[in-house]
């Protein structure tokens, strides 16, 4: 019961990232203030969101992943929720990539390699008070 009460104060962030080291970096940066669930591809991300939709506060979505990429996963998630914040975390950060990302249902983009400062700032924007 106590852990459930604590979880109410910790936002749940879903992270889709197929690279272990990139996920570990994200977890090291925000894991003390947020609960994190990890999907290794877009299909797993859609399934995680279906399981945790009520509690999820935001998503960090890699673009290039096996099985289902970030664009496909975001489209599937947008069919379930139009308002969950989804932030692309990608090495594809040229202006034309940014236009495609923002026109594909994402709410923003963090270019890789992700800096601690930019990730913390984005999480605090998405989850005020964290």
Describe this structure as you would to a colleague.
This protein is α/β, with parallel strands linked by helices. The protein is built from six helices and five strands. The chain has a five-stranded parallel sheet with strand order 2-1-3-4-5, with helices on both faces. α5 (95-103) links the parallel β4 and β5 (108-111).
Strand content: 15-25%
Element-by-element helix/strand order: HEHEHEHEHEH
- Outline the biggest β-sheet: 5 strands, parallel
Number of helices: 6
Number of DSSP-assigned strands: 5
Radius of gyration: 14 Å
Order the strands across the largest sheet as they lie in space. Answer: 2-1-3-4-5
Helix/strand-derived category reads: alpha/beta
Low-confidence stretches: 1-6
What gross morphology would you assign?
A: globular
Mean residue pLDDT: 92
Query: What level of helicity do the residues show?
Result: 40-55%
Could you give the distance between the termini? 22 Å
Quick description:
It is built from 6 helices and 5 strands. It is of the alpha/beta class and 130 residues long.
Give the secondary structure arrangement, pairings included:
Elements: H1 2-9, E1 12-16, H2 20-30, E2 35-39, H3 42-52, E3 56-62, H4 70-80, E4 86-90, H5 95-103, E5 108-111, H6 116-126
Parallel strand pairs: 1-2, 1-3, 3-4, 4-5
Helix pairs in contact: 3-4
